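Pilot study result, target chain (144 residues):
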Amino acid sequence: MEREYPSRPILGVGAVIFHNQKVLLVKRGKEPGYGKWSIPGGAVESGETLDEGILREVKEETGLDIEIGGIVKVLDSISRDENDRVKYHYVLIDFWCRSLSGELSPSSEILDARWVLPAEKSNYDLPKVTAEVIDLALSRLRAS
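Predicted structure:
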């Protein structure tokens, strides 16, 4: 399925990963959102469960092995072009996670990756919804 101008929404997963009281932020190296700060994640492949998809995406993008805590939020990400055609449409399921092992080693899909104190996330010009998801994930982590 084409990611640009898809015939239907694409299922994606995102990981709000915590380690030593910090959260992992990544700067996207491809569209949509090229050059913008976000959380790691990507499209679920055919035949994959949600858990398998998030574990694979995080390993591929960051080199990290994670433990999945649970779902934080389900949301739509829809981008339109100048003619109001749907250019990208993802249904995203974001999870909160803990880093278990591995060295942070961003792939070519990531321009930069940093462990950041949650209180400092506003320094990274995150989309409002991403900042909200991080706050929700932090509350779930603390409740666990």
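One observation from the pilot: The helical segments are 50-62, 128-143. A full batch analysis is planned for the follow-on phase.
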